Amino acid sequence: xxxxxxxxxIRTARHMVEEHGADNLxxxxxxxxxxxxxxxxxxxxxxxxxxxxxxxTLTMREMMAFVMLxxxxxxxxxxxxxxxxxxxxxREYAYAHPRAYLLLYASDDPEVLPDSTLARELALPIEERFxxxxxxxxxxxxLRGLWALMHGFVTLELAGQFRRTDEGAVxxxxxxxxxxxxxxxx
Length: 186
Description:
By secondary structure, the protein is mainly α. The chain is built from 8 helices and no strands. It is 69% helix and 0% strand.
């Protein structure tokens, strides 16, 4: 049997989620991918819930790194532009990994969710840009609103709920919604 590395196991499982959806992920399918029997996977993961949590943690970490990479390209003195860059990166990541993105937000089960400190680590640098834009008293409310806007828009978009097919209409709506939202906080 192939030697199994936990990180390879998680990446392979996430790839299976991306290819076939989370509902089609099973430990037996994962075992087949590694050429082992299902019980041998329990040396690396406790159960399917812990596997889903590991996939969600990987997704959150990657999304954080991607968003921070884009956020850090804009000077702190330009909060509007930085927040646009972060939001665009968030959406771009979700598009690149749609099923993993949706899995990340599909459950409120603590056994499946990544550690809450990860979301906080992603949120704090974005909130710091809001402090510059809105002041410290309003930064958390502004952050939560942006998060709701981004997640709601991206989720609807990934589900194909924007039915008008005008050239660029969805992209224009995304950019306009971000600009109007951020302008409202200035």
